[in-house]
Amino acid sequence: MERFNQIRDLVMSLEGDFEKFYEKDNQAAGTRVRKGMQELKNLGQEIRIEVQNKKNS
Q1: pLDDT tens column, 5-53
Q2: How many helices (H) and strands (E) does the chain have?
Q3: Stated pTM of the model
Q4: Domain residues of the chain, as ranges?
Q5: CB of 21 within 8 A of CB of 29?
Q6: Which of 5, 10, 26, 40 could form a disulfide with 20 if both were Cys (CB 3.0 to 4.6 A apart)?
Q7: 18 close to 35: Cβ distance less than 8 angstroms
């Protein structure tokens, strides 16, 4: 459940930047969104590997 909490916290921390980028056209917020989404992708990949390893053991 710790990993799920990490994903939830990351997504929630990006909420303000999403609003600034999409509603106010703030380009700097867009950069932060892209960075956060890359972190989310990396975290997702780590979780996939953990699940696969646990499943196979």
Answers
A1: 999 999 999 999 999 999 999 999 999 999 999 999 999 999 999 999 9
A2: 2, 0
A3: 0.85
A4: 2-56
A5: yes
A6: 26
A7: no
